[in-house]
Amino acid sequence: MKNQKHLHFAVLILLLLLNIGCDQVSKHIVRGRISEYEHISIIKDHFTLTKVQNSGAFLSLGDEMPYIFRLIILTGIPLIFLAYGLYYLFAHKNLPILMQIALCFLIGGGIGNLYDRIVHGSVTDFMHINFTIFQTGVFNFADVSIMIGVCILLIRSFVAPKNSTAENSETY
Prior knowledge:
Structural class: mainly alpha
Low-confidence stretches: none
Distance between the termini: 11 Å
Shape: globular
Radius of gyration: 18 Å
Helix content: 55-70%
């Protein structure tokens, strides 16, 4: 039983580290090999790489805010939420597995972007998708992790079991 708890803890840590690691390795490669605003076509003009340093939040929102407000809103508040998310993930042992996985993606992506903001002063974004009727802003793997976590939570909320017995059977 104790070994199973240690294994469970190790799997959660591994999932968090994989999310953070993939994000940071990809950003390190992009910072070293792609020039600012360079346009590299991967799949015609539908999927491109373009390095952008984002000192704001999503789609550069808040980029023009005074430094102290950006520090509080884009670094301080996320730091508090991520710390609470880590506490919640590891303190609540009976969370459903899908919830734990979603939290690992959300927290891992959040830590990846927060690390960039603290160490580099901005977040490195570099992927862009354009399918004519659907176009994204420039994003990174941390953003993908966050979106995967949100999607898991949304799907889970729509197909979640209605009774607590089925809910508890999904936990470790």
